[in-house]
Amino acid sequence: MTTSPRHTSSRGSRASSGHHRQGTGRRVLAGSFLLRHWGLGPLLICALVYGAGLVLKTNIFLAASDLHLLQDVGTHHTDMGNVIALMIHTGLGGLSAVVVLVLVAVAVMALKRSVPDGLMVLIMTTGGWAATAIMKVMVGRNRPDQNVLTDPLLPDVRGATSYPSGHTAFAVSLGIAVSLVMLRTRWKVPVIIGATIFAVIVGASRIYLGVHYLSDVVASFALSVAVAVLLSGAITSLQLTPDEQRR
Questions:
Q1: Is 3 exposed, middle or buried (0-12, 13-18, 19+ CB in 10 A)?
Q2: What architecture does CATH give domain 39-246?
Q3: Which of 221, 82, 231, 91 is nearest to 163 (CA)?
Q4: In a designed cystine with 220, which of 3, 84, 169, 231 is the match (CB 3.0 to 4.6 A)?
Q5: How far is CA 207 from CA 19, 22, 49, 137, 139, in A?
Q6: Alpha carbons 152 and 179: distance in angstroms, whole number
Q7: DSSP state, 146?
Q8: What tens digit of pLDDT does each residue of 33-78 get?
């Protein structure tokens, strides 16, 4: 007995439709889980960053390895490198960083003609920056000893504010914030690439100047990403209706 092509096609269509519904259902369940538990991953990362800071603060072998890298970098200083690193140090520190943030937020508002997008940049960047300042106090790791560096460029930068790097956190948080608001525009690719390069250069400049260890910079990247996910999840959750949140 032969099977009608029409029946075979119909069964294939039903099977395909069933697989599609199953796949859609799995995606919806995964999306619902992420929306309900958007804080778990970021909070775990924050806890790990804190724990790593306490270990780095007390482990003399890890500290010696961090310091050795700074001493090696100091032997490769150049006039141009010094100028760029010092400009970043001044331009993204304190009040100067606030001015940069406001200018970028205003530029985003003007480019996208959206006040909420500009506010998003302000909130997410400030959030990552503030989290880093809090972590500095909680960990209390001393800055690299400028007296033992090969070529100290900022000998007066001292204190228990090394971990994580504030300049790096600012750059990473700002880059993530701008990338997110530009994600649905034709500028998304150059913005993401530019934000990544910007964050890497700022992080590298802190090691170049000898005012932060490599581990301080890595911690800033991890903490800033975690805070960005936490804030974006919170904002998305607030924008959902009660019915959407229960799904």
A1: exposed
A2: Up-down Bundle (1.20)
A3: 221
A4: 169
A5: 52, 50, 19, 20, 19
A6: 35
A7: G
A8: 444 556 788 899 999 999 999 999 998 888 888 999 999 999 999 9
